[in-house]
Specification:
The complex is a heterodimer. By secondary structure, chain A is α/β, with parallel strands linked by helices. Chain A is built from twelve helices and 17 strands. The two termini of chain A are 41 Å apart. Chain B is 36% helix and 17% strand. Chain B contains 15 helices and 15 strands. In chain B, strand 10, helix 11 and strand 11 form a beta-alpha-beta unit. The longest helix of chain B has 19 residues. The N terminus of chain B is likely disordered. Classes of the chains: A alpha/beta, B alpha/beta. Chains A and B meet through strand 2, helix 1, helix 4, helix 6 and strand 15 of A and strand 2, helix 4, helix 7, helix 9 and strand 13 of B. Bound molecules: zinc ion (2 copies).
C-alpha cells in the first residue's frame, strides 16, 4: 500500500456502534460487516477518509494511532465495500447522468478507477436482445438507460393493439415494426446509440442467414415463438460456440413467472445442463402422461409479472457487462416467482459434469 | 379417509347428492377425495341437475387457460385418469372418467355450445355432460363464456388472466372496473412514474399526479418515462404526456407543488379517489406517509406506501387500509420497535470547498444511494401486482401487511410483517 493512497467513506454506509464492535450496514445491498473496535470517536476517525486525505496524511493527523493499524483498518474496510479507494475522479458527465448507477457500482468494486472502467464497459458493450415483447422491450430500454449504447434488436413483428398493456409501446406505434419503435425510443434516451435491427424470426437458420455480429458481449433471448425452449436452445448453442454470455428463457410462463437463467459459458450451468435437469424433474412428475392438446390456447398475461422478469434480467445483464460475475443472481438456478405468495422459488441447477455442451474444455471445443 | 363410504362406489345417488348439498357440503370434492384415495373409478349417473342441466347445455364454457390437462391410461380400457393442473397454485385435481370426457374438455373453447360439442362427439349423454359441467364449475376449472361481449382486443390477454385468477366475476367486468378507478400518486420519481405506467397500461382510467420537481439529467437512469428532451420540465407534465401516449383516453390532472407539513390535503386529494400511492421520499418517506395516511384514514381512502427508496432499493411497499391492515402509525411503529437498538449513522463528508460543483450536479452524494431503472421498476412491479390485486376487487385478497425486500447481491427476499399495536385506538376501535 502506498502512503499516498486515498480512501473515501461511502455515504450509503450506516454505522452502528455496539459495545465492542462497529457494524457497517451497506444500505444499497442491505448487508453488514462488523469490525472489532472501540466505538468512541469512530465516526470522526472515519470522516478523515474523505477521498482527499492520503493515508500518510491521516496518519500524521492521528499521531497516537500506529500507522500500520490505520492501514490495516483501511484495507479491511476497502475490501468490504465500506471505503472505496479514490484513485480517479468521476467526470462531470458521469456524475450528472449516472450518479445513482455510480453509487451502485461502488458496491461491486474497490477503486473508483474500476467503477469508471465499468461505466466504460457499459457504454462500449454490444448487447443483442432477441424478441421484443413484454420482457425484451423493457430490457432494451432499461439497458439504454443504464448507458448501453450498442444494440442488436431482433424481432419480425409489428406492434399490435393487444401488446400495449404489457410491452413498452404506445398507441401511435401500432402497425410499426417493433425494432423501429424501440430504436426511436432508445435514441430519445441515448441520442448516439448504434442500433442494428434484424426483422427475422429466431429459427434454426437464423444465425446462418443473418449477419449476426460475433463481437457481442451479451445475448438476451426473450423470443417465445413457437416456444421459449425452442428459441433458447438455438440461441444458447450459438452463444456457447462463440463463448458469449447469455440470458435465456425468461418471461411469463403461465402464472408462474420464470426468471431467465444467466449463463456464463463454461463457468456456470449451460442451457443443456438446465435442460437435462428439468427433463429429469418432469420425467418423474409426468411419467406415462400425455398433455391434452387444445387449439388456440391464448394464455393470459399480466404486466407486473413480465416486468419483474425484465427487471431481474436487466440487473444480471448489467452485472455481466461490468464483469461483476460474483454477484450474479440467476446463474446455476432456475427461479420462479409465485404471484399469489409473492415469493421466489429456486431450484439449484449445478453444472452437469457429463454435459454434452459444456463438460469439455472450452479450448478443445474451439 | 378410510371411514365408511358415503355412497355406493361407482354409482352416485341423486338423493344422497341432494341431502349433502342441503348441508352445504361440496359433494364433488367429497366424492373425488373418496374415489381417489381408494383408487375407485368414478362415473356420473342418474337424472342429475336435470333442470339446470338443460340450461347449461345451451351455454358456452371455456377451460381456463391456466389449467393444464393431462391424461393417462388406467387399468380399465375405457377409463382414463384426467389430471387438472392449476398453474397458478400448482394444485392438482384428478378424476377417473370415460375417454370421451377428455375429448369433451379439449372442445370447451368458449365458442361452441355444450350441445354442439355433444353432437360432435356423439355417444355422450346429456345428463353426464351437465353434471360434468357442474363439477368443473364448482372446481373453478372452467369459465362461463355465454353472453360475453365481443373480445376486447386491447386487453384480451389481461382479461384472460383475470378470468383465471379473479373468481368474483368474468374477466371483462374486472377490466371495466379498472377503467373506473381514480388513482392519486404522490411523487413522480422513478417508482411513482413506473407504477403510473404499469397501472395506465393495465387500464386504470384516471390519475392525479403530484410532484413539484422538474426532470434532471440524473433521473433518466432510474425513470421509465423521462427522456432527454424532457429535462427541465415538470415531472408531472412529462409523466402525464407519457401516459397519454400509452392511452389517449386516460384522464390526468396534476399538482406541481411540494408536500409540506401544513399542506391541506383535503384540497388536493379528491374524495372519490380509489387509492392514494405515496412514493415521496423527501425528506423521508416515513414523515410524508404519516401525514397522508392519517388524512386518508379519516376519509376511509385506501393507501399504498411504495418501496424502492434509499436503503430499500428493491422493496415492495405495503397497503395500508385499516381496519383490514394496521394503520399507518402502527405500521411505522412496528419498524421503530423492531429497530429500537439499531440506529445507523450515515456520515456526510463535509466538503465546503466543493459546494459549487455539488450544486451543478444536483443530487449527487459521493458513495450515496445507488439505483438504476431495473431496481425501481422491480419495486414498482411488485407494488403494482399488489395494487392491481386490490383495486380489481379480488375478494380472495389477503390483507397481511408484509414488506418484501429483494437483496441485490444475494437474491434472497426478506419479509417484514407490520402489526397492529396494542394501544392504538384506530386499529382497536373498529374491529
Ligand atoms: Zn452444460
Ligand atoms: Zn393502529
Amino acid at each position: 500500500m502506498f502512503a499516498t493512497t486515498k480512501f473515501r467513506l461511502r455515504q450509503s454506509i450506516g454505522i452502528v456502534a455496539n459495545q465492542n464492535t462497529i457494524e457497517f450496514f451497506r444500505a444499497n445491498t442491505r448487508t453488514s460487516v462488523s469490525l472489532k473496535m472501540k466505538p468512541d470517536g469512530v465516526i470522526d476517525f472515519l470522516r478523515n477518509f474523505n477521498g482527499k486525505n492520503s493515508l500518510d496524511y491521516i496518519c500524521q493527523l492521528l499521531p497516537k494511532t500506529p500507522p500500520d493499524q490505520i492501514e490495516k483498518i483501511a484495507l479491511f474496510l476497502r475490501d468490504n465495500f465500506v471505503l472505496i479507494e479514490h484513485d480517479l475522479d468521476y467526470t462531470t458527465e458521469y456524475i450528472s447522468y449516472y450518479y445513482r448507477l455510480l453509487n451502485l457500482l461502488e458496491d461491486f468494486f474497490h477503486r473508483t478507477s474500476d467503477v469508471i472502467g465499468a461505466l466504460e464497459k457499459i457504454s462500449k458493450s454490444q448487447v443483442a436482445i432477441i424478441g421484443l415483447g413484454a420482457v425484451g422491450s423493457h430490457i432494451s430500454l432499461y439497458l439504454a438507460r443504464a448507458g448501453v449504447k450498442k444494440f442488436i434488436l431482433v424481432d419480425p413483428d409489428k406492434v399490435d393493439v393487444s401488446n400495449i398493456h404489457r410491452q413498452a409501446y404506445s398507441e401511435s406505434n401500432i402497425g410499426e415494426l417493433k425494432t423501429t419503435c424501440l430504436e426511436r425510443k432508445i435514441k430519445e434516451i441515448s441520442p448516439h446509440a448504434i442500433i442494428k435491427k434484424i426483422e427475422y424470426p429466431l429459427n434454426k437458420d437464423f444465425f446462418l442467414s443473418q449477419e449476426f455480429p460475433t463481437d457481442v458481449d451479451l445475448i438476451i433471448n426473450c423470443a417465445d415463438e413457437p416456444s421459449v425452449d425452442y428459441t433458447s436452445s438455438i440461441v444458447s448453442e450459438y452463444a456457447m460456440s462463440h463463448t458469449i454470455p447469455h440470458i435465456v428463457g425468461g418471461g411469463y410462463n403461465l402464472h408462474l413467472t420464470l426468471i431467465g437463467q444467466t449463463i456464463i459459458p463454461y463457468e456456470t450451468a449451460c442451457y443443456k445442463c438446465f435442460d437435462s435437469k428439468l427433463t429429469e424433474i418432469n420425467a418423474i412428475e409426468f411419467l406415462g402422461i400425455r398433455r391434452l392438446d387444445r387449439e388456440n390456447r391464448k394464455l393470459g398475461s399480466f404486466s407486473p409479472l413480465s416486468g419483474i422478469a425484465a427487471s431481474l434480467a436487466s440487473l444480471d445483464a448489467i452485472k455481466v457487462i461490468v464483469g461483476a460475475n460474483n454477484f450474479l443472481l440467476q446463474t446455476n438456478k432456475r427461479i420462479e416467482f409465485n404471484s399469489k405468495t409473492k415469493t421466489f422459488n429456486a431450484i439449484d441447477v449445478p453444472r452437469n459434469p457429463a454435459c454434452p455442451w459444456c463438460a469439455t474444455n472450452r479450448h478443445l471445443k474451439k | 379417509m378410510a371411514a365408511a363410504p358415503p355412497f355406493v362406489p361407482g354409482v352416485v345417488s341423486p338423493v344422497l347428492i341432494k341431502r349433502l348439498r342441503l348441508h352445504g357440503i361440496n359433494i364433488w370434492k367429497l366424492i373425488l377425495a373418496y374415489c381417489s384415495t381408494n383408487k375407485l373409478p368414478f362415473t356420473i349417473k342418474g337424472p342429475l341437475c336435470k333442470k339446470s342441466g338443460f340450461f347449461m347445455l345451451n351455454e358456452t364454457y371455456k377451460l381456463k387457460e391456466s389449467i393444464d390437462v393431462f391424461v393417462s391410461e388406467t387399468e380399465s380400457p375405457d377409463k382414463v385418469l384426467i389430471i387438472f393442473h392449476k398453474m397458478t397454485t400448482r394444485d392438482r385435481i384428478e378424476i377417473i372418467a370415460g375417454k370421451g370426457v377428455a375429448e369433451f374438455l379439449a372442445l370447451l373453447d368458449g365458442k361452441t355450445t355444450t350441445v354442439d360439442i355433444l353432437s360432435k362427439l356423439g355417444n355422450f349423454d346429456n345428463d353426464s355432460a351437465a353434471s360434468l359441467i357442474e363439477f368443473l364449475s364448482s372446481q373453478r376449472l372452467i369459465v362461463n363464456f355465454t353472453e360475453r361481449p365481443p373480445e376486447n382486443q386491447r386487453y384480451k390477454r389481461q382479461i384472460a388472466y383475470f378470468d383465471d385468477l379473479i373468481l368474483d366475476r368474468p374477466g371483462h367486468s374486472t377490466q371495466e372496473q379498472l377503467k373506473s378507478k381514480h388513482v392519486t400518486i404522490f411523487g413522480c420519481g422513478a417508482v411513482g412514474g413506473s407504477i403510473a405506467e404499469i397501472l395506465g397500461r393495465a387500464g386504470v382510467g384516471e390519475f392525479l399526479l403530484i410532484d413539484y420537481k422538474r426532470v434532471a439529467e440524473g433521473n433518466l437512469v432510474c425513470d421509465t418515462y423521462s427522456t432527454r428532451k424532457d429535462i427541465g420540465n415538470y415531472k408531472t407534465d412529462v409523466l402525464a404526456a407519457f401516459l397519454n401516449t400509452i392511452d389517449s383516453n386516460i384522464n390526468i390532472s396534476t399538482i406541481n407543488e411540494q408536500l409540506l407539513p401544513h399542506t391541506d390535503l383535503s384540497s388536493w386529494i379528491p374524495k372519490n379517489t380509489s387509492l392514494v400511492i405515496n412514493t415521496c421520499d423527501e425528506p423521508y418517506i416515513g414523515h410524508t406517509s404519516l401525514k397522508i395516511g392519517r388524512h386518508l384514514h379519516q376519509q376511509e381512502i385506501p393507501f399504498y406506501v411504495a418501496g424502492g427508496f434509499d436503503a430499500h432499493l428493491m422493496s415492495s411497499g405495503e397497503l395500508i387500509f385499516p381496519p383490514f391492515t394496521p394503520c399507518i402509525d402502527c405500521a411505522q411503529k412496528t419498524f421503530s420497535v423492531a429497530l429500537e437498538n439499531w440506529k445507523p449513522t450515515y456520515s456526510s463528508i463535509e466538503d465546503s470547498d466543493e459546494n459549487i460543483s455539488f450544486e451543478t450536479t444536483n443530487n449527487y452524494i459521493a458513495g450515496g444511494s445507488g439505483g438504476f431503472v431495473a431496481l425501481s421498476a422491480f419495486s414498482a412491479n411488485l407494488a403494482s401486482l399488489r395494487i392491481l390485486e386490490f383495486i380489481s376487487g379480488d375478494s380472495s385478497i389477503n390483507f397481511n401487511t408484509v414488506r418484501y425486500e429483494y437483496l441485490i447481491n444475494s437474491g434472497f427476499t426478506t419479509e417484514f410483517e407490520m402489526q397492529k399495536q396494542e394501544n392504538c385506538c384506530v386499529c382497536n376501535d373498529k374491529i
